[in-house]
Design goal:
This protein is of the alpha/beta class. It folds into two domains: 311 residues, FAD/NAD(P)-binding domain (3-Layer(bba) Sandwich); 107 residues, Succinate dehydrogenase/fumarate reductase flavoprotein, catalytic domain (Flavocytochrome C3, Chain A, domain 1), CATH 3.90.700.10. Helices cover 35% and strands 15% of the residues. It is built from 15 helices and 16 strands. Strands 1, 2, 5, 6, 7, 8 and 15 form a seven-stranded mixed β-sheet that branches. Strands 10-13-12-11 form a four-stranded antiparallel β-sheet, with helices on one face. Helix 2 packs across helix 3. The longest helix is centred in the last third of the chain and has 24 residues. The two termini are 39 Å apart.
Amino acid sequence: MKSSKSRTRPRKKGPHAGARVSDILIIGTGIAGLCAALQAARAGYEVTVLSKMGDVSESNTLYAQGGIAVLGSGDSPDLFVKDILGAGAGASSPKAAAILADEGPDQVRELLIEIAGVEFDRTRAGALALTGEAAHSRRRIYHQGDATGKEIEHKLVQAVGKSPRIRLLPGQMAIDLITSEHHASEPTAVYEPSVCLGAYVLDTSKGSVQTHLAKKTILASGGIGRIYQHTTNPPGATGDGIVMARRSGVSIINAEYMQFHPTALFHRDANRFLISEAVRGEGGKLINRKGEAFMSQYSPRLKDLAPRDVVARAIHDEMATTGEPCVFLDFARNAPKGMSIRRRFPNIYSKCKLFGIDITREPIPVVPAAHYFCGGVKVDEWGLSTLPNLYAVGEVACTGLHGGNRLASTSLLEGVVWGARSIRHITSQGLGELPALAASIPPWQDEGLSAAEDPVLIRQDLLTVQTTMWNYAGIVRTEKRLRRAEDDMGYLQRRVTDFYRATKLTVELVELRNAVEAARIVISSALRNEVSRGCHFRKRSNGRRGRREKS
């Protein structure tokens, strides 16, 4: 959809004075975008990094609890790869898994520990502490209490802020990617291969749209969790990068694979706060209201440490069987002897205590929640998309690493590895120059748009997206549910598109537009794939499981 074209009318041939030009434009300030920025600055490039939030640290990375995978004692890249492929339900790329296992530990040491100064927990002897998580065959997870992402994000933001080559801009929301085919005012541009030239960006403090041109553009905008009613993702995760890429003709793959984290805090006043998988990694057991441990019924060998899709469906089924709105995670009675729960999980302890739950004495009420998008912009082993000059790294990208289900604590590592790899590729291929067609990119035009935003309509439409996706395209899917979701989202998209084209831009309006489009991408992919695999689970109308993947 090229709706942005209805807002951009060429005034004259030639560059316009308001355009900003960078060597590299990075959209997003999570671990992937910030690692790319640091590496780009070290390579001598002039970099602009955009955060749509006023607080540049606000990202999915900030809320990551468990940790970041490396290699542990008695470990090897081959074992790590085996675990990744096992969790990925046969759909992961062996090549991507090998890259992560081979390069990841060194990149963590260099970029995070040595350059950014990230401080992970250490043992009494001073060694870096390692923990275990579900589906890992070794204890190989670096962590910082239960707020690893917060430590990483803050240290990366500080490091980026010290670089004179990096311009970090808060409150800047990318609206659409600029491509030569879709936006150049030169009429002959349509005969040339399309290339990415940057992005149109909404300055949220001024309400105006600026043109950002760049020789290379890197999408690092995160995931889509906010299209679901229950999610661990922060408010900004509305699929902005995914749909911008799609509108530009970029390939999106594996969009049916939305991973649901099994354990989010269940409380009417809590915004689905994540209860880290590390709690189960340290011994926590899932129980029902009767106090019965139930995971052995669903995964006799791995039990509570089964892959996330298995655990999420087990909880879903247990809730459906008992009629209860949640299950419970009992760590108080299962923590390792001598462990201080308050010191090991201070963030979770404090948050639960805020809602009257003492995790040192009682079980934690939990439910599954949308957590991580395993699909995304199709990229090669260097993060390069199908659109020249456009890279994608982190959750917005699909390297093939996660396949049908992500292995715990590999997402932060993927951001580090491919953030760095994208810059290595740019350096090896040469930065190049802006194509001549960049001179014919017009400024964004909003003249004639008089309608004002209606926040009530926007909130209600977004709620419709979220409840529809949760009920019809969530943990368990059927063809009937997906068809209903397809019809409902098709109607809603037409209505929202008309509203968007007539209304002055706001962050909320753009996010709504993106959320609807992201939902349609997921639904379409889920309908096409009749095979139940990983976190895409289809059940027949008669209650039977959908066609299984070949073993």
